[in-house]
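Summary of Year 1 activities. Much of the first year was spent building the evaluation harness for sequence design. The harness presents a backbone, in tokenized form, and records the residue chosen at every position. We chose the following record to illustrate the format because it has been used consistently in internal testing since the harness was completed.
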């Protein structure tokens, strides 16, 4: 189990720390299991010596796994969270892949690079660009000829309430999501729709980790706040979006150059 970063100190729990704590047991910050991540990377990386960019990388788990799988791969990650990037640096050091990983703390939309990338990832972070299609437009600018994009986005899997839209944004159903991507000049060459088990495992892991930390630290001044957040978020999931939220990852190639 990775350390939560909160330890036994009585420092206030800020938003970044809450997020890191919630992902203690699920370092991929999206509803995918380890095998799905491995298969998606396999379909996205036809060359072992690829150059990869992750926009909204969080703790750079996707990149760390790709770097571990492919010893000649080079990766760059962009995120606004200094805490997440610091954790990524520490994990990269532990894995011995730090020399092949460059991390940038900045807005993903403003990121520019002298390189083009064989793979551009953006999983669970399309809000950084204002939605799915603006994210693809940004990814296209970073993409080498014949490069691939791996994008992960939510969709509505059933009837959804106004409350769910307010919580998760203005999503489409799965077929419409893919149609919109295709209409923008992209061809899906692989995809993964998160299973009910992956979706449930992710939510239980997040809110369970928060709750466990609170119960394990009864004397911490923020215990009540952390337990309250875990209760609220678990309840929102179960009451508002468990039966209607889906998540898809698409591996995309440009339909024409
Ligand atoms: C749900 S997490 C996904 C992290 C990672 N892609 C993964 O799958 O593990 C969303 C990430 O987007 C980052 N983010 C949000 N807005 C951003 C922005 N404007 N620019 C860069 N990163 C942003 C957050 O800090 C967070 O790490």
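For this record, the design step produced the sequence shown next.
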């Amino acid at each position: 189990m990775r350390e939560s970063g909160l330890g036994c100190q009585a420092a206030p729990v800020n938003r970044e720390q809450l997020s890191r704590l919630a992902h203690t047991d699920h370092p991929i910050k999206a509803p995918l299991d380890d095998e799905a991540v491995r298969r998606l990377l396999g379909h996205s990386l036809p060359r072992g010596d690829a150059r990869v960019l992750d926009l909204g990388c969080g703790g750079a788990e996707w990149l760390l796994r790709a770097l571990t799988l492919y010893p000649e791969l080079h990766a760059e990650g962009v995120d606004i969270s200094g805490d997440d990037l610091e954790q990524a640096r520490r994990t990269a050091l532990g894995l011995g892949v730090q020399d092949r990983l460059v991390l940038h703390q900045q807005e993903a939309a403003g990121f520019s690079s002298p390189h083009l990338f064989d793979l551009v990832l953006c999983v669970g972070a399309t809000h950084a660009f204002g939605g799915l299609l603006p994210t693809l437009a940004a990814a296209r600018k970073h993409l080498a000829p014949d490069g691939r994009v791996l994008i992960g986005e939510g969709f509505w899997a059933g009837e959804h309430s106004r409350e769910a839209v307010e919580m998760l944004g203005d999503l489409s159903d799965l077929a419409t999501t893919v149609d919109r991507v295709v209409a923008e000049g992209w061809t899906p060459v692989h995809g993964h729709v998160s299973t009910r088990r992956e979706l449930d495992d992710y939510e239980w892991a997040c809110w369970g980790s928060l709750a466990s930390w609170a119960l394990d630290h009864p004397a911490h001044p923020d215990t009540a706040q952390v337990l309250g957040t875990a209760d609220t978020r678990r309840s929102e999931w179960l009451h508002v979006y468990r039966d209607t939220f889906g998540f898809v990852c698409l591996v995309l190639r440009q339909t024409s150059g």
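The chain is about 45% helix and 20% strand. Quantitative recovery figures across the full test set are reported in Table 2.
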